Amino acid sequence: MITIIQQTLLLLGTILSGAIDAKTGYIYDWITIPMIIVGIITSVLLQQWINLITGLIIFISFFLIYTYGKIGGGDVKLFTAIALLNPTNNIYFLITGILIACASSIIFYTTYYGIKYLKKGIDLEENKIGITKAILFGVIISIYFITITYLGLIPLKTGAILMFISLFGLIFIALQKGITKNFFEEKIKLSKIEEDEVIAEENNSKKVLLLLKNKKLVGPKEAKLLKKHGIKEIFVLRNLPPFGPFIAIGVIIATISPELIKLFLI
Question: Are both 176 and 231 inside the same structural domain?
């Protein structure tokens, strides 16, 4: 019965969060906090210690990623809730869900923004550094996957799938500067700053970055500091693509096949 409660809340919570995130760009605490609380209670009642341990690990590791502005705070809480509500108390369920969420989002957004950028006109000179990085990483990744596949550490099909997903990641790295500039960067007045704004490091002055002490996330408190030093406007990243819908996809597939990841390891 308790396991059914876990699974039901897990699916409802992630699907609702994904739908709201797709529409508003936010994952709200009124969804994730109850999921976390129920997850802790049910994990203790069922003695699902793996859930509790992975929940803590996920929260700490994803929170560090959040401080660098790479994912939202709502995503951190949602992933933590997923770990705690894991009905299988099995690490494979969590790995399957996370990998599918990450892979599907990379493929979708690279394709979506790549096409939009192509229509707008790709500036190769502007993306010169990114393209160089992508080529370098591509060579390293190719050598790595070919080596571990040749040595039999992973099956050929797994190597091929990982290479395919990596290709989309490399394309995004190559065009990241141009995509960010054209679709996410926004110059705003300090009075318009909201909580957890992600700093656009490329266009902000060295003075701004030094005053912020290389913080990736800023809010009204940092706005007051900048205002004292004569700063009136800064560049931030807004309208960043939502991750919630892909988290929901990952959880749905992991629920249907909790140990799907094992198929790629045998």
Answer: no
Residues 214 and 145 grouped into a single domain: no
Separation of CA 259 from chain center:
22
- Band of pLDDT at residue 194, cut at 50, 70 and 90: confident
Q: How many domains, the chain?
A: 3
Q: Which residues contact 137 (CB under 8 A, 6 or more apart)?
A: 170, 173
Taking the alpha carbons at both ends of the chain, their separation in whole angstroms is 33
pTM: 0.88
Q: Indicate the pLDDT class of residue 90, thresholds 50, 70 and 90.
A: confident
Residue 84 exposed, middle or buried by CB count within 10 Å (0-12, 13-18, 19+): buried
Q: Domain for residue 242, yes or no?
A: no
Token reading at 237: 């990243």
Q: Are residues 156 and 217 in the same domain?
A: no
For residue range 201-237, what is the model confidence (pLDDT) as tens digits?
778 888 888 888 878 888 888 888 888 888 888 888 8
**Residue ranges making up the domain that contains 219:** 185-237
Identify the three-state secondary structure at position 218: strand
Are 174 and 199 in the same domain? Answer: no
Same domain, 113 and 179: yes
